[in-house]
Amino acid sequence: MPNQAATKRFIDIVMISRLGVGDGGRETWIYNFMAEVSRQQPDVAFRIFSLPLAPDNILVTTDIKQKVDVEHIEIPCVKTRVPLVLSFVRTFPAIYRQHRSARNTESVAVVGVGSLGEALSVYLGSRGAPASLERIMWLRTVFTREKFDRIPCILMSAIKFTEESLLNRAFDQIVANGDDTAAYYRERGVECEVIHNAVRLAEYYGASRTPQGKLAVAFVGRLSDVKGTAEFLAAVRQAANSGLLDQVEFHVAGAGPGQAQVQPLHEQGLLHYHGALSNRDMPGFLAQMDCCVALTSFTPSLGGGGVSNALIEQMAARKIVVAWDNVIFRNALYDQEGYFVPQGDATALHQCFRYIVANPEEAQRKALTASEGVKRYDIRHHVGKFFELLDA
Predict the structure, then answer these.
(1) Which strands sit side by side in the sheet containing 248-253, from one edge to the other?
(2) Of 290, 333, 287, 297, residue with least CA distance to 312
(3) Which of 12, 25, 175, 255 could form a disulfide with 138 if both were Cys (CB 3.0 to 4.6 A apart)?
(4) How many beta carbons lie within 10 A of that of residue 359, not counting itself?
(5) Is residue 24 within 8 Å of residue 306, measured between CB atoms?
(6) 175 touches 122 (CB < 8 A)
(7) Cα dihedral sign for 304, 309, 312, 314?
(8) Cα(34)–Cα(216) distance, rounded to whole angstroms?
(9) DSSP run (H or E) holding 251
(10) DSSP code string of 181-217
């Protein structure tokens, strides 16, 4: 798109990501966010600083190429023994300062999207910038939660202290993507504004279907312990042992460490494994499903996960939702909109599937109610709240 610098407001986005179309919730969010900002605020242009792009990345999609004024600046991170996050933090500041000094337009804001890695990068890179530059940290997750299995226990307290101190002193605004994430940081003395996660709901409204044959149940997301992969697979095995597979078929879409446990069940015919799906594929995939599970675990020490992109997509697509009964999913789902089961209880999960099969009318009523209630997570309202905050 033509870049008319004199009339543009530039926003810098910092993400430690390859921006792959199917990489996860953050990538889905930034894709939707930039497209909607361009619809609402055509005078806004983006500069996005990220890792080298994946071949199939959000910036080459038709929506972004045709409608969004965006420049990509690559932060090269050579594979070494240094963790990727630290490599990005070490490399980013010099490139950002050089890029800022080389252009003749000042950005109105720099926004870190993610967690501690992005926060450190923005802090180090924006030192010496004009006071007019708004520094915003958009917390999409809790760093110590996401990296829990990779952080030695002896370092956990020091990392939490560093993160809290940095957020408090280096940013003009802290935004959390859910009430649970905000509560976690507020308890540690970090004030947050909440802008709930949101998606372009219209893409999913056509994805409902009339139930036919077996109940199609889907697990969508990263295949890891914190996402509930093990409990879901345990429920699938219980369904096989109880004869429920005569009435229910199970599907898994995603990638991650748990793939090694998913593949054998696929080979045994207990479930259908679809691999990782892109954002473009998701509406079509959901159109073939009746029910979806939301099984991210919550512990007070690790914090919350914010409002789940996948959950609100599934609600919009009028899917029956079965979720762990925790604050992550109480963020977005009400009792009349889905089913809650005790966190970590694979047997209760299995029994819930049996109950849905026996009570299809009730389940469909809940799904219909959810598809109406999810309008509160429309991307249009989400972007509007961001600019209210930025322009305040």
Answers:
(1) 272-273, 248-253, 215-220, 291-294, 320-324, 339-341
(2) 333
(3) 175
(4) 12
(5) no
(6) no
(7) negative
(8) 33
(9) strand 248-253
(10) HHHHHHTTT---EE----B-THHHHTT-----SSEEE
Query: Residue 373 in contact with residue 315, Cβ under 8 Å?
Result: yes
Class of residue 331 by CB neighbours under 10 A (exposed 0-12, middle 13-18, buried 19+) = buried
pLDDT in tens, 121-141: 999 999 988 889 999 999 987
Cβ atoms of 125 and 90 closer than 8 Å: no
Whether the CB-CB separation of 12 and 111 falls below 8 Å is answered with yes
> What distance in Å separates the CA atoms of residue 279 and residue 256, rounded to the nearest whole number?
17
pLDDT in tens, 87-110: 999 999 999 999 887 776 789 999
Give every CB contact of residue 109 below 8 A, 6+ residues apart in sequence: 11, 12, 133, 134, 135, 136, 390
How far apart (Å, rounded) are the C-alpha atoms in residues 192 and 195? 10
Q: How many CB atoms lie within 10 A of CB 67?
A: 16
Can you spell out the DSSP letters for 55-73?
SSBGGGSHHHHHH--EEEE
What average pLDDT score do residues 315-341 get? 93
What is the residue whose two structure tokens read 């969508």? Answer: 220
Contact status, residue 52 vs residue 91, Cβ threshold 8 Å: no
d(CA 260, CA 279): 23
Token pair 């933090």 is found at: 89
Percentages (nearest 5) of helix, strand, coil residues in the chain: 45, 20, 35
Question: Tokens 């009523």 identify what position?
Answer: 365
Q: In which element (H, E) is residue 39 found?
A: helix 25-40
CA distance 281 to 261: 24
Contact of 23 with 125, CB cutoff 8 Å? no
What is the number of other CB atoms lying within 10 angstroms of the CB of residue 205? 14
Measured CA to CA, the distance from residue 246 to residue 241 in angstroms comes to: 11
Tell me if 166 sits within 8 A of 208, measured CB to CB: no
Tokens of 57: 């990345």
Return d(Cα 67, Cα 375) in angstroms, integer: 24
**Which helix (H) or strand (E) covers residue 93, if one does?**
helix 84-102
Distance in angstroms (rounded) separating the CA atoms of residues 363 and 381: 29
- Alpha carbon dihedral 118, 278, 263, 245, in 10-degree steps, equals 120
pTM of the model: 0.74
Res 23: pLDDT: 76
Q: Which residue has the tokens 């599937």?
A: 353
